[in-house]
Amino acid sequence: MRKPVIAGNWKMYKLIGDAVSTALALRPLVSNANHCEIVIAPPFTALKVVADRLEGSNIQVAGQDCATETKHGAHTGEIAANMLLDAGATHVIIGHSERRQHYCESDTFVQRKIQAAVATGLTAIMCVGESLAQREAGTAESVVKGQLNGGLRGLTATDLNRIMIAYEPVWAIGTGRTATPDQAQEMHSFVRGIFNEKFGGEASERLRILYGGSVKPDNIASLMTAPDIDGALVGGASLDAESFAGIVHYNG
Ligand code: PEP
Hints:
Layout: E1 5-9, H1 16-29, E2 37-41, H2 44-53, E3 59-63, H3 81-87, E4 91-94, H4 97-102, H5 107-120, E5 123-128, H6 132-136, H7 140-151, E6 163-167, H8 181-199, H9 201-206, E7 209-212, H10 220-223, E8 231-234, H11 241-248
Parallel strand pairs: 1-2, 1-8, 2-3, 3-4, 4-5, 5-6, 6-7, 7-8
Helix pairs in contact: 1-2, 1-11, 5-7, 7-8
Bound molecules: phosphoenolpyruvate.
Phosphoenolpyruvate binds at residues 9, 168, 173-174, 212-215, 233-237.
């Protein structure tokens, strides 16, 4: 049985005070949720204080990105995976479509970041997903396959324990246009099939594949009925503690 994961991506929202108050409001709302793992990704500036304030809770903390480099050095503006770990993170989001689109992150970059994350002991939440134009052109699967092949290059069987995939169709992110459970299931099953080919049946059965794209408290339950959807990566609806708690409690 794969334990579901509900992860919140706060993107470039929240000053430190707001981040702390949201985390503290969330803590009691989800303290009895044992059916899933809960992760939130505050901005870098709030990561350490949020992680400290959540110590002893069932909420884990993620970075939203990390550097390709693992050794400290002259990399202005970058945050290394071990700095995230040092600040209290257990996870890191890598290859989000906003980084691929607006910050020119290639599959090679994503691959190097994943290597850096897993070598450091973080769990990487690797994002993949096609644009609307690619879906309409019928190339969604080949796009996702290319992202997986590029990003996962060089991973060993042990590294796979530290990898989750988030399927996030770009056309569903922040648009209110959620993929239907059937659309998401189709791609999740395709992703699991690729893992099966690359890493074998056991690794593919263990892999958690999260869906992301306009997940809300009122659509999460139907998404979670799909057999290959193992959780969600949530943007907008994770910014409010009650709304995110409503997603965590998708099981009623
Ligand atoms: C995201 O940014 O990862 C995301 C899924 O955003 P939203 O839930 O707002 O669509």
